[in-house]
Amino acid sequence: MSKSINKVSILGRLGKDPDLRFTGSGTPFCRLRVATNGGYKNADGEWIEKTEWHSLVAWGKLAEICNQYLAKGDQAYFEGELQTRSFEDSNGHTRYVTEVKTREMVLLGSGANGIADEVEAISEAA
User: What is the DSSP letter of 15?
Assistant: First the structure.
């Protein structure tokens, strides 16, 4: 039996406000940029801080909720799966983008629109 798992979990802060858009057929989608921090000790024993940036996309009702409740600097937890898509740029070159297709979002701490010290779990089914 061959089985595989494509699951991503990210707990980080938004680097900019969510970008809500709509497909030609009117389906909402929201692009998010999320930073996670970590680090390592170099050969001299100094702690080196490292920030990783992640591209996420949410669809449907979840996209609208992310746009409504999240803002730059907010901390949130996201679950989803990695997906790679291709597109043609203005010069006719094929480009590839790997992003997290978000299925769940949990708002942490004091979130946008005055939600203080609450944790909200919002899934794609909402």
Answer: S
Please check whether residue 88 is in contact with residue 69, taking contact to mean a CB–CB distance below 8 angstroms.
no
Question: Does the predicted TM-score (pTM) go above 0.85?
Answer: no
Q: What is the pLDDT of residues 69-125, one digit of tens each?
A: 999 999 999 999 999 999 999 999 999 999 999 999 999 875 444 443 343 445 544
Encoding tokens for residue 115?
A: 């939600």
| Alpha carbon distance 123, 105 (integer Å) | 6
Number of domains in the chain: 1
Q: Confirm whether 1 is domain-assigned.
A: no
| Beta strand pairing call for 75-88 and 28-41 | unpaired
H helices of 9-113, in order, are 60-69
* CATH classification of the domain holding 24: 2.40.50.140
